[in-house]
Amino acid sequence: MPPRIQSHRVSNSLLPFLSSSSSTSSSTLSASASCLSRYDFSTTSVSQTRHRETMFNWLNNEGSVFKYHVPGETNYVTRLQKGNDASQSSSPDVGVENKKPFPGNQDFVSESILSEELRMEIYKRVVEQKKSIRVVSVELRVDMRRVGAVIRLVELEKRWKQLGKNLALPYARAIHEMVPTTPLATDGNQPSHESTNDLPIHRLTEPQIFYPVPESRPFTRVDAGRVFSGAPALVHKEAEKSRDHLAAVDDLVRRTRTFERIGKGANEQQVLQPADMRIPHPQLILVEKDRMDHPNEYRERVKRYNERLADQDASEGKRRAVAVARREATLKHVEPETSRFQFRIQDVVVSRTTTGRDGRGPNAPGRRYGVPSQECKKGQVKIPTEVIV
Amino acid sequence: MVVRIRLARFGNKRQPFYNIVVTQARSARGSKPLEVIGTYNPIPKRPTTLFDDASGTTRPYKDISLDISRAKYWVGVGAQPSDSAWRLLNIAGIVEPKPHVQK
Question: A-chain residues within 8 Å CB-CB of B63?
Fold first, then answer.
């Protein structure tokens, strides 16, 4: 905004009486002192200082580049400083600079976020094309948990749009310009957003165990897993079989494998599996093995990969059908005429076996009597700390 | 003394949750009942999970868990359901709807 002409005149007339470092209080004083002058009709502050003029000079010359920002980039004043540095010293690292959203904190380097196109592509593939989260995660190189989160958030966004709620689009746009984003590749070479196949740390692997093994005895990762979970060692024949870990991974990918469990009651848990089986995408091990064995049979490899995934989908579907049938067997759905709700009546068992002798058994229906609720106790975390995909 | 089938409120402020209990009519709401035969969660839930896709409904639902054989037994020996318990037992198909009494 260029300064108004009138205020120019005022400042000029009062310039000899004001020091350059006049504060607001002195300006109000001088304004009241000039009340009797012929400018008493003016409501403009009289402190038209040199600062204001230099500000407008700067805005009209150097600063004019900041008036409209380049989409996809930040619009910080520090850019001028950087420009000077760059002209003096050669080759500034543009890639790294772009990852620093806060010019005051040069130590903070931001990770990339998903671009809008990539986000919508994930949603499209999972919800519209009905691909599994596992497949989409491998194709677009995004973690499975993030894929799940994207789907939930896009669903939420759609619901909000339906309800007519306002979305914070300017905010989203600003964030996308501040931090780097992972684009959606059009030519099929999708850049990796993050590492998708990290091995999670299992609780059972935390203790350090001293376990002496004779040199003459083979001891593999399968055996180590058994030691960690306190399972007895395998007999010789089974141990021989367990060493074919690719077959085991294949079974796992096709979902035709059952896992041994150990422990009693509430302590029952699955025997710890080797790392090949615990990574998020074990099917990629087989893909890699296939590529090493048959480097020139691309189509055959893709066919085998798809076949494995189809097997997996079929087994998953079967398992889900069994789970639903088991659940529905004890559940009755009632939709009364007079109510807008459905009632789901689960048949439970009240007997000595469920309630226990003192009536406080954990399997009995209903809230317990005489067992205080931990709800208001100190240190109870009520915010969910993880989402199971 | 009369034995009643009624609801006992649990849960926190604005998060009601009820045990369906069999108890003496004159005992306090929070006292220990003869038997807990089920629960009722009056807060409706939206069908979102995989299981709900299979059931193919769009209505919000409320969960009731009930030992139906025990409920039939207690009704058979003369336990009197309260109005709200009567409604739930009717939904579960154990008793006829309560006849409307003209005042």
Answer: 343-344, 346
Give the pLDDT mean for A330-356. 90
Domain B3-91 maps to which CATH number in 3.30.1320.10, 3.30.230.70, 3.90.226.10, 2.30.30.240? 3.30.1320.10
Q: C-alpha distances in angstroms, A73 versus A80, A168, A172, A184?
A: 14, 19, 14, 18
For residue A342, the one-letter residue type is Q
Query: Looking at chain A, which residue has its C-alpha nearest residue B58?
Result: A342
Coil, strand, or helix at residue B83? helix
Q: How far is A318 from chain B (nearest CA, A)?
A: 13
Tell me: do A80 and A130 sit in the same domain.
Answer: no
Confidence of residue B51 (pLDDT cuts 50, 70, 90): low
Assess whether A223 and A314 both reside in one domain. Answer: yes
- Domain encompassing residue A169: 113-182
> A245 and A303: one domain?
yes
| C-alpha distance from B38 to closest chain A C-alpha (Å) | 6
Q: What is the pLDDT of residues A60-84, one digit of tens each?
A: 998 888 888 777 777 888 777 766 6
A281 falls within a domain? yes
Check CB contact under 8 Å for A334 and B12: no
Of B36, B54, B66, the CB nearest to A364: B36
- Contact with chain A for residue B17, Cβ under 8 A: yes
Asked, for residue A352, whether it belongs to a domain, the answer is no
Residue A197 DSSP class? -
Residues A108-131: tens digit of each pLDDT: 989 999 999 999 999 999 999 989
pLDDT tens digits for A257-307? 888 999 887 788 899 999 989 999 999 999 999 999 999 999 999 999 999
Q: Are A86 and A131 within one domain?
A: no
Give A147-186 pLDDT, tens digit per residue.
Answer: 999 999 999 999 999 999 999 999 998 888 888 899 999 8
Q: Under a CB-based contact definition with an 8 Å cutoff, are residues A197 and A277 in contact?
A: no
Could you tell me if residue A84 is inside a domain? Answer: yes
CA distance B83 to chain A (A): 16
User: How many degrees, rounded to 5, is the angle at CA A153 between CA A150 and CA A158?
Assistant: 125
Q: Three-state SS for A232?
A: coil
> Based on the domain organization, do A223 and A313 belong to the same domain?
yes
Q: Using the beta-carbon criterion (under 8 Å), do A350 and B91 form an inter-chain contact?
A: no
Q: How many whole angstroms separate alpha carbon A131 and alpha carbon A306? A: 12
Q: Of B50, B55, B59, which has the smallest distance from its Cβ to A340's Cβ?
A: B59
Count Cβ atoms below 10 Å from residue B78 Cβ, excluding itself: 8
> In degrees rounded to 5, what are phi and psi of residue A293?
-75, -40
- Any idea where the domains of chain B sit in the sequence? 3-91
Question: With contact defined as beta carbons under 8 Å apart, do A344 and B63 qualify?
Answer: yes
Contacts of B38 in chain A (CB under 8 A): 348, 350, 365-366
One domain, residues A25 and A94: yes
In this predicted structure, the answer to whether residue A244 has a pLDDT above a threshold of 50 is yes
Mean pLDDT, all residues of chain A: 81
pTM of the entire predicted model: 0.66
Cross-chain CB nearest to A345 (options B12, B32, B64): B64
